[in-house]
């Protein structure tokens, strides 16, 4: 298929201005979550699809958080789902940004704006790939579904989660997305999410009478220290995952930052909220803190909650509530689409290593239903912080890889082999 892929690569290069221009306009369509209202961004996407003559549905359980779905089929064959989200992290008052977070500014080969790498550049790739596949549907066998969704930053249950439960065409035989991951890594799985809320209650009292009551904040502080030991919980990986993670260790350090490979393989513990006390001279009656635990593949909620409950039980004033759980999920690191994506990246001079993502993504909804799912995306530059940006060269590279891989996966030649 080398001649076909060369043609597709040249197509992306010729559409450079279209891709960059779409991304810049997409970034100007504000869609911070919270509050999660993506109507402006959705209108931007649907206007583009209209201009391309592509039909679509705007659907979902919340009118302020619409989802866009478009499908086509070119005879019998398998279906590939291309997924991307429109909602992005909030920016507050914009303090600390050197560029307008909603400006989509192009400076020295970088496009700046909230959501540039997470993941409006990636969603741009998915939309573009779908549009080109739609044009070439006579050359492929099977079909594709584009899902441009809301609510990903809040767990995705009003977006991708709702779609896979209600629209059969959004299931497919494989799903790909373009969350920030760097061209040097291919994400075949993601760590699970377990969120805990710990509440400590004591009688309280006057701050001078410390002999009359235990201090809820002091107890909570000791509990936080003890819960930090969860990071040493043993993890038993399936053999093929362990092999893949070892192969991807150096790439993980490059993509995730120094120490990222170790965090990828262990439980991580983050205290995200800590609240207690009413006045400096009052013994606090209550302290509440919330814990974000990320579980690597090979570790389930029950395995970790056993250790959590043992630790909390040492403090009779405390109780724990697990208020969210998304299990660690993965597809086979040597699965067909993983091999295809990796092969096409190699054609462009990069060999992405298979690793597990530290954060969650909407791919969990497909993986829960046994659909092989992968993501390959741009580098994380400023995700969740100031001056977020996407590199134009990486946008083109990632788009070439996904377009060639989608074509190959649905290719009549590939199916004939």
Short description:
The protein is an alpha+beta fold and 417 residues long. The protein has 14 helices and 18 strands. The strands form five sheets. The chain has a six-stranded mixed sheet.
Provide structural commentary.
By secondary structure, the chain is an alpha+beta fold. It has two domains: 2-190 and 328-416, Zn peptidases (Aminopeptidase), CATH 3.40.630; 192-242 and 257-326, 2-Layer Sandwich (Alpha-Beta Plaits), CATH 3.30.70.360. Helix content is 37%, strand content 23%. The protein has 14 helices and 18 strands. A six-stranded mixed sheet has the order 1-2-6-3-7-17. Strands 11-13-9-14 form a four-stranded antiparallel sheet. Strands 4-5-18 form a three-stranded antiparallel sheet. The two termini are 12 Å apart. The mean pLDDT is 95.
